[in-house]
Amino acid sequence: MGFHIVNPDAPPSAKAVADTDTDKQAKTRNGNTRPLPLPFPDLHQCGRLRTGHLLTVFGVSAPEFYKRQKGGLLPAPDGRDPRPYWEASTIREFKESGGGAG
Predict the structure, then answer these.
(1) Mean pLDDT throughout 27-50?
(2) What's this model's pTM, rounded to 2 decimal places?
(3) Euclidean distance between CA atoms 90 and 102, whole angstroms
């Protein structure tokens, strides 16, 4: 990604300039989680959901999701591996009880 110039007094080579330009172009993501389609048609099937899936289920942005999670408005993850996951049944029960509205 980066480059290393052996002689600091020498002008940068074309490759070094090209590497710098490539690094600037490659950084287009802001680091937020992206919404993901559900891996199954509804929440009545068994399976694990990741943060991106929950963005889709609740229809919120990543910052709003984390704000609600920090405020205790969303259920805690069922586990980590090392990323957090929720069982579909947990989210289904949460939604059926009226949670996640807003």
Answers:
(1) 84
(2) 0.67
(3) 19
